[in-house]
Amino acid sequence: MINMRGFILKSNSAILATSPSPAWTTTQQSGYFVPLVQASEISVSIDRQTSKQVGSQQYAIDNIVRAPNVSFNLNYIFSPHLVNEYLFGLALPATGSGKSTASGMSTRDQNFYLIINDQNGDDILKDFTGTSPRANFSGMTCAAIGNCFLSDYSLGFQIGGLPTVSASFSASNLQMTNMTGSNVSIPAINLLSGNNTNSGFLNFSNLQTSLSGYASEFTTNRPNVYRLPVVSPQNVSAQLENLQMGGSVLVTGAIIQSVDFSIPFERTDLYGLGSNHVYGRKLQLPLRASVNVSAVVTGMSTGNLHLINQSERAYDFDVTFSDPKATASGKFEIRGAKLNSMSYSMPVNDRLDFTASYSVEITEASGFRMRRL
After folding, report:
1. What is the dihedral of CA 343, 348, 350, 352, to 10 degrees?
2. 54 found inside a domain
3. Which residues contact 204 (CB under 8 A, 6 or more apart)?
4. 161-171 and 267-270 strand pairing
5. What's the number of CA atoms in the CB half-sphere (13 Å) around residue 279?
6. 95 Cβ neighbours under 8 A, 6+ residues apart
7. Is 53 inside a domain boundary?
């Protein structure tokens, strides 16, 4: 909880919204509710240059040399509808072979809006089932984060727990507004000019509860409400190829206990003379994702691991998931994963467990994709 203006701000008094890419516009943006959020964090790092001079113990220069960088971190429960993944540009409603997770992510930025209720302790979402929670947002506080580029996406499936996602963004601006009415200026910076002159606005009274219209590919209604169904452990299935290393079969049968994905979107910040802000955050391709698998071993085979440098092979993974009533389902497809490490463990009076870590090369055309079935 944060003490501000005499109010005790609580999470049930806040909602998170986002807007489509690109972040910068001079017109009105549409806002879309980000569902199933568990935690959010905003942090700011300031680039300061210091220099001393002969004959003094004090700094001669102690100045901020360019605009601060903003980090925005988000945790949410994973839903088979992939609503947040669509909002972040990771899952695209494509047909046929689909698109890689990295497709279009190099220049993609968006804005986020954390709206905090001025009524102490009241649920801001009590009426948010088909329309915006209220028409007038006067008195509320909005923390708006501009030009957010995705920098990391991590997801974990495990027995006995709901899958959760962690997403991180690198941003260019943080704007705090005490709202009057329903409009708020967008926080984005025009990265070409380095300012936000003539910036557009977002109208929260028109906050969208459907993904229809979010992008041209959405021709059917995709629900976007805070009571979305989520994925339960019994509704996840992982298919792995026959795992080998240097001709040695690692396991001949495995009962999967957990599967974790981590995709760092490594970027290079591009600065230039005449602007305090980045011109862009270039994506460093290929991305190098990691996949960790834990399983109970039901059998082992023969082979020699010293032959790995002669017969290394890549592996394909498919992880399918659905909600408990199978009203929505989807799939993660990992292609060309390579083994980095593996281990066996067997405590006294316990089972033989197997863990393995893989790396995946992701380009704009291949490596990893997520889609609805």
Report:
1. 20
2. no
3. 17, 31, 113, 115, 132, 137, 179, 182, 183, 184
4. unpaired
5. 8
6. none
7. no
Cα distance between residue 110 and residue 12, in whole Å: 24
Asked if residue 310 is part of any domain, the answer here is yes
For the entire predicted model, the pTM comes to 0.86
pLDDT in tens for each of the 373 residues of the chain?
444 455 555 555 778 899 989 999 999 888 888 888 899 999 988 877 778 888 888 887 777 777 788 999 999 999 888 889 989 988 765 444 567 889 889 999 999 999 887 776 666 665 555 555 556 778 888 999 999 999 999 999 888 888 999 999 999 999 998 888 888 999 999 988 888 888 999 988 777 766 766 655 555 555 556 567 788 777 887 766 555 544 444 555 567 788 899 999 999 988 887 777 888 899 999 999 999 988 777 665 555 555 555 556 777 888 888 888 777 788 888 888 888 887 878 877 767 787 888 899 999 888 998 887 7
Token pair of 133, please? 């929670």
Dihedral sign for Cα 195, 264, 371, 72, please. Answer: negative
How far, in Å, CA of 16 to CA of 39, rounded?
Answer: 10
Strand 329-345 to strand 315-322: parallel, antiparallel, or no bridges (unpaired)?
Answer: antiparallel
Provide the 3-class DSSP secondary structure of residue 86. Answer: helix
Would you call 276 helix, strand, or coil by DSSP? coil
Residue 52 falls within a domain, yes or no?
no
Tokens of 201: 């606005």
Residue (of 360, 325, 339, 160) closest to 258 by Cα position: 160
Q: Are 34 and 206 in contact (CB under 8 A)?
A: no
Give the whole-angstrom CA distance, residue 252 versus residue 283. 39
The whole-angstrom separation of Cα 368 and Cα 291 is: 11
* The residue type at 169: F
Residue 316: give the domain boundaries.
Answer: 2-47+62-372
Which two structure tokens, joined as six digits, stand for 115?
């709206």
195: amino acid identity, one letter: N
Instruction: Please state the domain count of the chain.
Output: 1
| Strand 14-18 with 110-116, pairing | antiparallel
Helix (H) or strand (E) holding 177: strand 173-178
Contacts of residue 365, defined as CB under 8 A and 6 or more positions apart, other chains included, come to 100, 103
